[in-house]
Records
---
Amino acid sequence: MAPDRERTPAGTAAAPRPRTRLDQPLPRRRRLLPEWDPEAFGRLSERIARFLGTGRFIVWMTAVVVVWVVWNIAAPRDLRFDQYPFIFLTLMLSLQASYAAPLILLAQNRQDDRDRVNLEQDRKQNERSIADTEYLTREIAALRVGLGEVATRDWIRSELEDLVKELEERHGDGRVVFPAEHVRGRDVDDR
């Protein structure tokens, strides 16, 4: 389908230009280089770097080098492919090292990025924990202040015992007589 052309008013010399349609996706452009998923490549490089850092890799690499050297020393002359200074072996080891170093660096960079994100999350979590602890500390302090003003059962009991002793002292016969105001449930101060 051809793009719509804008219409120009009659009498103008402007050339018509193609109009971009916003209701349809653009056609895919051909790329010269192949596309790849950077995350998939990063995961592959991490797997390779992890393997290069194992004892298994060292054992396999040692076995390959030993077989290579023994083959090129003990095999018949026509079957040898790398003579004594083992230049081809040196080239292969250099090639392996030239690929291993960037892969290891890429894996380290990805690990650094993950560590940075984890540290940031830990820092935010620590800030929230500190804020929560400070809030709870303030709440406990407020409760302590509030409890200082609350009458406890022991305090009320001791006050009542003191009141009973005072009333017994006023009326020496041992009977407790309450004033009429207290019987009706009203206190003198309530008037």
---
Amino acid sequence: MAKETGRKMIAQNKKARHDYHILDTYEAGLVLTGTEVKSLRLGRASLVDGFAQLEGDEAWLYNVHIPEYTQGTWTNHSARRKRKMLLHRAEIDKLEQKSQESGHTVVPLALYFKDGRVKVEIALAKGKKEYDKRQTLREKQDRREADRAMSAVRRKQRGA
């Protein structure tokens, strides 16, 4: 069997991009058990309630839901256990320093396989206010309407 290459997406946290201003992103490895990897290969995971916390010299990922592997035995993992993230010392120090500032947090954005290894994309983020969320939605809607109008004009030009 050939070794996997490239990036295969498992799960994304779209809610995080809606609720936070993303300031900086990092890629981290995860320490997982065998049944967790098998469950992820089936493409089942949820990052919605997940968050990262720095404890001492280590980074931990909390509340990420990886369901139990259906063919697992007594060695199966618990679905929401805390998982250790693998980051460089400089990255951990930088995250710890910046996350101490008020309103800043570390959230997972995506979970994916990269060359056969499970990686998590985490972000240093600052919480949005309610009016910021409305503004973002309004901008997205305006952009979509402008794109529709432009494509309608292009269709008319081709048809004429």
---
Amino acid sequence: MANHREFDTDAGMDWDAEAASFDDEPDHGLRDPDVRAAWADRLRSWLPGRACDILDLGCGTGSLSLLAAEQGHRVTGVDSSPAMVDLARAKLAGRDAAFLVGDAATPPVGEQRFDVVLVRHVLWALPDPGRALRHWRELLRPGGRLVLIEGVWGAVSPVGIPAERLTALLESVTAHVRVEPLSGDPLLWGRAVADERYAVVAAV
């Protein structure tokens, strides 16, 4: 749920306080039709073509969850902020979606398993990203995939996780990793960006 606006924050940020304005960022609220369409196209290319079960970790207000649901998928979203979860539930009211308050690193889904674990701008802020990746893999059904959208933001004091480091962490999880650069598509962010932004699709 963390984003390029919060270069100087950490995982202890008060996300409940941020919830009301969270969707003001173009790549959060996806209110601009062109930005929304750009994310929908990317998501369609990362997710299976058939209807499947998606676990959206650090789902925020549920914008990506909504896109996935509109594409026919069943979505379970998890976020540590009750205010974010309330907004996500309202945004996806009437859809095949459920939202839970919990830790993205160890989501409260019990024995439930998924076809895709979708995570955007969360892994970099976790204290042990390698451990989180191994746990997320265990939440996947055979043939499932991790879809991880990450980056490195800021010029003076950059924060994030470089693609090279993330692919190295995934070596113990899967041998099938594809990295897709995202920095060159200004429609995804509502503006041109110069920092490193990318998606990793890792099949297990």
